[in-house]
Model the fold of this input.
Amino acid sequence: MHNWVIELANGHAVAPDEGRATKHPVRIKDGVISLRLAARLVT
Done:
């Protein structure tokens, strides 16, 4: 993903790049940035 251009609103790569990045909900409260990361099982 080096030098890719990614749309921040949807995570999709901008042409001519292909693919997408995972989106995560973000909250900023009192200067603290929080990310909600879904737990997933990796085997």
